[in-house]
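sorry for the late reply, my laptop died twice this morning and i had to redo everyting from scratch. anyway the thing you sent over, i finally got around to it. pasting the sequence first so we're on the same page, its 112 residues, then the predicted structure underneath. double check i copied it right bc i was rushing
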Amino acid sequence: QVQLVESGGGLVQPGGSLRLSCAASENILTINTMGWYRQATGKQRELVAIITRSGSTNYADSVKGRFTISRDNARNTVYLQMNSLKPEDTAVYYCNMAYTYWGKGTLVTVSS
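ok and here's the structure:
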């Protein structure tokens, strides 16, 4: 059973930064796509960013230029660096492996 454990969420002021981590229980070296999604209260879950095994990335338009996804295959960990945070970034952030497995999420709240 694959386990994904997110960490790094919390309360941050607008304009601030956070780095989320997703630790996988399995070797991610052969996993083509790892991703971050988010779900705000009352809204559907949406894609934030994905990264392939080759390092190619794709971002939601709303986070381009502010968020950076990366992966450390040796540590079986995926990261999401979030800068210039806005109140509309407030959501539960979920890690995804291969469009199949999900973590339980970590809450990010952007508020003054």
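The chain is about 0% helix and 50% strand.
thats about all i looked at so far, will dig more tmrw
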